[in-house]
Amino acid sequence: MRKLLIYALAMAALMAPSMSLAQSSRSTGVADDAIPGSPARGAAFAAKQCASCHAITSDGVSPRSDAPPFGEVAKKYADYRLDWELEAIASVGHYAMPAKAMTAIQIADVTAYLRTLYDKPRDDHRRR
Ligand code: HEC
Q1: Are 44 and 25 in the same domain?
Q2: Ligand 1: residues within 6 Å at CB?
Q3: Is residue 8 part of a domain?
Q4: How crowded is residue 116: how many other Cβ atoms within 10 Å of its Cβ?
Q5: Does a structural domain hold residue 127?
Q6: Are residues 45 and 70 in the same domain?
Q7: Is residue 68 within 8 Å of residue 93, measured between CB atoms?
Q8: Residue 114's domain spans which residues?
Q9: 31 pLDDT exceeds 60?
C-alpha cells in the first residue's frame, strides 16, 4: 500500500511538467505571448501613455499622422510576438517613435489589449 502511494506521487511529479507544457502551448490562433496580460489594464495604460500619438481603438485616426493606429499594429503583428516588439520599443523605441519605458506586466497588458483589436480570420474549420 505504502509502495503504491510512493509510486503514485512519483508519477504525479513526473507528469506535472508535461501538463504545464501542454497548457502553455495551447493554440490561441495568434502567436503565443509570454505572459497572459489584462486587456482592461492594457486599455487604461494605452489611453494614458500611447493615445497622444496613436489611435488606440481598432478604427480611430492617430493624433500623430506617422504613428500607426493600434488596429493596424494588431493586424501587422497577428502572427508575430507583439510582446517582443514592445520590449524592444520599451528600451530603444521604433524608428520615429521614442523609447517608452514599460514594465513586463505593462507589456503583457498592452499586448493583451492589442490582441482584442484584431480578429484574425481563421482558415480552418473552427470558425464560429
Ligand atoms: C510621442 C508619440 C508616441 C507615443 C507616446 C507612442 N508612440 Fe508608438 N509610435 C510612434 C510613431 C511615430 C511610430 C511609427 C514609428 C516608425 O515606425 O517610424 C510608432 C510605432 C509604434 C508601433 C509599431 C511598430 C511597428 O512595427 O510598426 C508600436 C507597436 C507602438 N508604436 C506602440 C506604442 C505603445 C504601446 C505606446 C504606449 C505605451 C506608444 N507606442 C506610444 C509614436 C508614439
Answers
A1: no
A2: 46, 49-50, 52-54, 64, 66-68, 73, 76, 85-86, 89, 94-98, 100, 102, 110
A3: yes
A4: 14
A5: no
A6: yes
A7: no
A8: 38-120
A9: no
The alpha carbon of residue 8 and the mean position of all alpha carbons in its chain are separated, in whole angstroms, by 37
Give bridge partners of residue 94 from the DSSP assignment. Answer: 97
Identify the bridge partners of residue 97 per DSSP, sorted by sequence position: 94
pLDDT band at 36; cut points 50, 70, 90: confident
Asked if residue 30 has pLDDT above 50, the reply is no
Q: 53-104 pLDDT, tens per residue?
A: 999 999 899 999 999 999 999 999 999 999 999 999 999 999 999 999 999 9
Asked whether residue 79 falls in the same domain as residue 17, the answer is no
Residue 77 lies in a domain: yes
Whose CA is closest to atom 17 on ligand 1? 95
Total domains in the chain come to 2
Placement of cell 490561441 in the chain: 28
Query: What pLDDT is stored for residue 105 in this prediction?
Result: 95
Residue nearest to atom 25 of ligand 1 (CA): 73
| Strand locations in the chain (E) | none
Specify the pLDDT at position 121: 80
> What is the distance in A from the centroid of ligand 1 to the CA of 67?
6
CA of 94 from ligand 1 middle (Å) equals 7
pLDDT tens readout for residues 8-25: 555 555 554 444 443 433
